Automatic annotation (TrEMBL), chains A, B, C, D:
Name by which UniProt lists this protein: Aminotransferase class V-fold PLP-dependent enzyme
Residues involved in substrate binding: R341
Single GO MF descriptor: L-serine-pyruvate transaminase activity
Keyword tags: Aminotransferase, Pyridoxal phosphate, Transferase
N6-(pyridoxal phosphate)lysine modified-residue sites: K196
InterPro entries assigned: Aminotrans_V_dom, Aminotrans_V_PyrdxlP_BS, AspGlyoxATase, PyrdxlP-dep_Trfase, PyrdxlP-dep_Trfase_major, PyrdxlP-dep_Trfase_small, SP_NH2Trfase/AEP_transaminase
Organism per entry: Paracoccus subflavus
Upper classification of the organism: Bacteria, Pseudomonadati, Pseudomonadota, Alphaproteobacteria, Rhodobacterales
Length: 395, 395, 395, 395
């Protein structure tokens, strides 16, 4: 039923054997002390992955989308003003959610392929003398376009503007993949999920709240119960949970954090960068362009690759699945049909990446694109070879 | 880390081997056609389990609590009037959620151990000439007290009153355990989860919406995005999902429905009744009383057992865990310390039930309660023996 | 397909979750260094379980029967004389194997239910002035009759007779269940399997060879290749194996040994004794007799229970399976139809044992035997209660 | 602990998810009727895979080596004459086993890389007027050299010589990989294991016996008990087994046969040929030679690749493991250090094969061999692309 090839979608990612087994648990009594011994190490592990010592972590049986909703409903009231950049499908969706919850979103539209424009945000924030903007939303990694934005720059924009707005960051496809620093960057809410850098099945929304975000909870007027972090906090304090917890996924999260921390976060990031760079060199060898406009925007989680004008990128994805049993990502929204995506996050080796690159070459050749078989593979091999020793030491 | 004894909590239940394996899936591309082949049979299976042909089924990566929120946020607006009975912790929590969402809840308080008072509801509905009450909430199985309420009677109350209110039923711990008839009883929204009668790990909120409930969605003013069934409906229509779906749990749900339907729902119900009746006979043999006031209120999912005045029921639960590695349920809310609960729902055999009964006897004897060792076991054995043959044919 | 009730056969035993997962491994390269890191800890662990520092351990992809064959073919030559006691089906089978391999077996027949008669062996060995007897075979735990023999006494018989024969012990259903002391008792070859005290699936023959047994290998004339321990020894020395090794089971063996040693062997034995004693008290409460003749012969691994004259014990086993989905053991050979067996070895809790006892009571009542429901359960409960605290500390 | 890259050793092979789960079973009572429902379909499935209607199948908890021993000990007596070809490590080992069991082996030595010389065998058989040769041994696929021999030609040699010797074939790494016809080719004993074409973990020796081989069992004088097929046959007839059966692996074998037969054996063979041909084209693109001397000898299970004179092939295998976490096979015996092997049997896709080819290229480049990165990949891609459609229909 399921192919044994690795998947190259930008999440959910390939699940390591040890995490498969950690999640697959028999039923335990979640009101017994055993539960606390799973929950608290998982929460502590996430804190370390988020690089926060001051933040509090909350984990919901939900998804990244639920994480977005948790962020806004716990801190905002109807009519509150939010400043957000739209530069891809996922930043769009968070904006849409805000609007559906009655928030007043000031949208900064960027061409898809661009990042969050910190300078433009600074202008807007500076102009907002009345501090009506309560929150700035930023998508760290736009999964739809393979664009990494500079969150430290967004923080500087806020600071330069002397603006007290909260900074909420969607790190769904960046956290545990490349560098994320909740405390250093003054992130007030970080949102992620289980199925990307944590290499688990989907099913968890994972959030970090800064003390400032926690303070905002008391005055937030948007209704919420399932996503109310106060109920979670009360539960955790009693080694419990406000409703039936997803014990297996929490156990998996605990083990995933251990794996990441044992490897070392910087090594995890270096590993992602190395794999991603191989993919990018393959793309260059094919004579193709990334959707991301400039190297400083290139994502180490996913590459969105532009196809020639007039060619339907979706055919690459469907043919790869039908002919070779390999899953790539389609383009979404504004770039639908214009890009296909290779996910290279989570539990992926250079060897697996090469099989994805080789498959993409066969697919493009099958579909008449002028790609030389083996060309991208060779470029990636060259990169992986030269960088192998260092990686090996890290492994 | 985890005991190999069965659990006797009223959910999550013991997970059958085949469902463990169905849930434990490698990552697939949820945007590929494979996903639809998991999703749609699962949705169809749930429809059959709910006994609805007209309803639509929605499944969220969430819990029963998220299911409650889905029900109210998709159909109601702030200030809308809701009529609800409070007769235990779970009906209380749904009411609390409504209030936190700004609804105006008219609460009918019942002694814990009583069911939903259909006659009283009929009076109230009849008196509501202006039809201000938009929804009647009813908890089919109060997990906290082991009380089964008569949903058909609630429907008759609505009909007798000629009242157009919607009927929302919490069937979290009844559906797939004992008879539930969404269409026959005119249930507008049925709410359940994965971790009870469906015998899966927690992580899914499962809902059925009647056409009348679907119609109410269009005018509902409460904000929701994650729980918006319109996004779900659009996703399903395209063999997709509005965000990352919990594929393993959906696959498990599909297989669970097949198991239930292959066994035959009436056989599933008879099996639950048989196991439950054995537990009840044990309780009677111990000279103890159920929290449920009358036999027609006895739940086939869980029995809450009253302990003698002055005795702390929680010690039974903690001692069972510490001394014998067996999990029972504690009393919650008004009956905290006054009852302990034996869950007998989901994948449980007579043989397993006997081990739970035997453990309860040891525990109570250890704690000085006047229980004769073997007495409850003998009563249950007698029942299981006499009813074994019929069950065996059904198995 | 498979019942979720525990099994009560005298092996294979119930497999703990952690061992299920340890065995279920993806393929590794067994010629890589990873293999040695699985193999050697497993071998070392077995040595500790056998309580030997001088012996060498060998593990074959086979069963206990293959272990018997390994013992005789590596040490004996056609026509060699062997002294063996036959007191049950498994001692019988080892004798039969010797005869099929051309050995000259002097059989001491004992009534089934009796143990190995050390005094009689001493007489025979003393009379064997020419030391023609090369090996004494002894079955530590006769699985067919639930009889434990005194291996220390057999050693004393050899010593008293001043006889140099090797002592080979079938510890298949005793090792890792109750006390076994390879070095102290001067056992020259100990034979066991994976599926009893080690709680793993079947598939491994596990042997300890004393230095004296190792010396005998050089002169043994029976042909063997698959079971040749010299090939194994050469393989181990190179972190390898003479043919494709059963990596998953070896990994499981490693983890199983860790579990046993972490619990503490004496605690493991005490746990088995406690569970077994509960079963025996139940049998006494039923007014029935064990096949084992005297308390000093009672096995802590399995109880064979005599049924009344004229009653077919096999009907108990078949009815238990058909009506309640519970597996007990039938009688074998001379005691076929006369006994049924309750296995209580490996990963079994008091709670699980009570469910087996309760089932046996229902079955016997169903079949018209004069057993009072709950009587055996109560006797076992009483024992388990009184012994619970000490066990709890050990757990 | 274990890499998530596929393995490219010539067995054990990558285990499909569904077979992992089929093997990983809770304990069942192997004396219950459930066992027969696993055993007999597995035996029937193997018969179909062997393409025999007249043969009987036996399955032992052992390995291919145990299968060899089963073949000879059940049919031969000490001093019996056996004719065998030695053209690699595995044919050598079977010969060695015969000698250790006291058989008189006439060895036809072939250069490693050559196949079984049917013409030379015919000469010897024709010369054996007294019919002293009881058995001809032939290794269908020499795993050490990647050589496929022509078993039909060996049968013709026997027939042309009018010789009644039995024909025993080692099909360990051919059966379920490429065409094997037990009945058509007059194979008297076929030997294989679980861990190659059947895609299971190691642990089973699998044999087919022709009626003529069955007849030989009655007069065979070599001692055997564990491997005695008469005990197996008696067990099977009673839905049982002569000792504790490896139930999980048997269940896996049943499911594996279903998978193979559902795919269609000819499709399985075509799939292996396609994957293998891609590897061979890569080897040619590298300018390297196979160990197998001629195309008609090329194995579809494994390719042994000659390295340049003076280069140590083992460094390729160790570097691949250390630097990239990929397992290839080393050279064994006469070709140790001269070849490395790429296993391409069992559950392997074109995409996985490409990752192995790409890895080999990186490794060889790292070690200074004059291999152009991407060259072998491109050659294989070209082949896989052109053959994809047909395969896709078969999948």
């Amino acid at each position: 039923m399921t192919s044994q090839n690795p998947v190259f979608i930008p999440g959910p990612t390939n699940i390591p054997e040890v995490l498969r087994k950690a999640v697959d648990m028999p039923t335990i009594d979640h009101r017994s002390p055993v539960f606390g011994k799973i929950l608290h190490p998982a929460l502590d592990g996430v804190k370390q992955v988020l690089k926060t010592t001051q933040g509090q972590v909350f984990v919901f049986p939900s998804t990244g989308t639920g994480g977005w909703e948790t962020a806004i409903t716990n801190t905002l009231s109807p009519g509150d003003k939010v400043l957000a950049t739209r530069n891809g499908m996922f930043s769009h969706r968070w904006i849409d959610m805000c609007q559906r919850h009655g928030l007043d979103v000031q949208v900064v539209d960027q061409e898809w392929g661009e990042g969050v424009p910190a300078d433009r945000l600074e202008e807007i924030l500076t102009a907002d003398k009345a501090h009506e903007i309560k929150v700035v939303l930023a998508t760290h990694n736009e999964t739809a376009t393979g664009v990494r934005s500079d969150i430290a720059a967004v923080r500087r924009a806020l600071d330069n503007a002397g603006h007290p707005a909260l900074l909420f960051v969607d790190g769904v496809s960046s956290i545990a993949c490349y560098d994320f620093r909740m405390d250093d960057w003054g992130v007030d809410i970080a949102v992620t999920g289980s199925q990307k850098g944590f290499m688990l099945p989907p099913g968890l929304a994972i959030l970090g709240f800064s003390p400032k975000a926690m303070a905002a909870v008391e005055t937030a007027g948007l209704p919420r119960t399932f996503f109310d972090i106060r109920d979670q906090a009360r539960g955790y304090a009693a080694n419990g949970y406000p409703y039936t917890p997803p014990v297996g996924l929490l156990n998996g999260l605990n083990v995933a954090c251990q794996m990441l921390l044992d490897e070392g976060l910087e090594n995890v990031f270096a590993r992602h960068h190395r794999i991603a760079e191989g993919v990018r060199r393959a793309v260059a060898a094919w004579g193709m362009q990334l959707c991301a406009k400039r190297p400083d925007l290139y994502s180490d989680s996913v590459s969105a690759i532009r196809v020639p004008e007039g060619f339907d990128a979706n055919t690459i994805v469907s043919h790869a699945l039908n002919a070779y049993g390999v899953a790539f990502g389609t383009g979404l929204g504004d770039v639908a049909g214009k890009v296909f995506r290779i996910g290279h996050l989570g539990s992926l080796t250079d060897v697996m990446a090469l099989s994805g690159i080789a498959t993409a070459e066969m697919v493009m050749a099958d579909l008449g694109l002028p790609v030389t078989l083996g060309s991208g593979v060779a470029a990636a091999q060259d990169h992986y070879r030269r960088s192998a020793t260092a990686m090996q030491k890290a492994a």
